[in-house]
Amino acid sequence: MKIEENGMCRWGRRATIVVLLVIATIHFLRRPAPNVPTLAGQTQLHGFTVVIDAGHGGEDGGAVSPSGTVESGINLEIALRLDAILGLYGADTVLLRTEDISLHDPDAQTLREKKASDLHNRVEMVESIPNALLVSIHQNTYTGSRRYHGAQVFYEDEVSSRQLAEHAQEILRQSLDPANTRQAAKLPGTVYLMEHITCPAILVECGFLSNPEEDALLRTAAYQTKLAAALASALLSHVPMAEE
Question: Domain boundaries in the chain?
């Protein structure tokens, strides 16, 4: 199930943000931290289709910051920017959602049923795409303390996903937050989507909504673009070869 795979539809969808993204991405990626790969010269993802999952959506907004920021909206903004940047370099992408909606079946009634249906459908969508590589975008929160900050990348499968997770973590750290000492980590086995897919996949907690300073950053278009650009750089410069 490839969303808007026609070329004209693809660019029509990006038209409202692509010019600003080009300018911002060029500015950002021409000034990387030492040893951070840039997008320059990268034209493909070795046959993979990048599936971009903006976590939550609709009635399930995810985490909410003290300022009232809802996670699902920020996830979507970063996902749209990542899609647009990768598209500029000829990468094949699929967005699981392009608006603030849940992907549940029509017959799901309660919030619990909708969440379960949404997750099942996301798994089916990812699994239906040949040579998929999943990037699931989320925001973190920590009840009881506002001091925690920084992006962190998670993975489920050691063989297919750990190296990419570690690479993305390092690019996020060097590019956006050198004081961030977090390391890429294996998920504890409680994230349904990541447990039930078979393709390479990373889950990115882009920052802590419970941290007022980071919450303010995550709400800005400029920082959302920087996050997307760093993730695009990681994907374009460090993707394992597709299996024949």
Answer: 7-236
| Distance from C-alpha of 27 to C-alpha of 237, rounded to nearest angstrom | 18
| pTM of this structure | 0.83
DSSP 240: P
Pinpoint the alpha helices (H) of the chain.
7-14, 18-29, 71-88, 111-127, 158-176, 192-195, 212-218, 221-237
Tell me the C-alpha distance between 57 and 59, whole Å. Answer: 6
Q: Maximum Cα–Cα distance for the chain, whole Å?
A: 52
- Superfamily the domain 7-236 falls into: Zn-dependent exopeptidases (3.40.630.40)
> 36-67 pLDDT, tens per residue?
444 444 445 778 999 999 999 999 999 999 99
What 3-state class would DSSP assign to 161?
Answer: helix
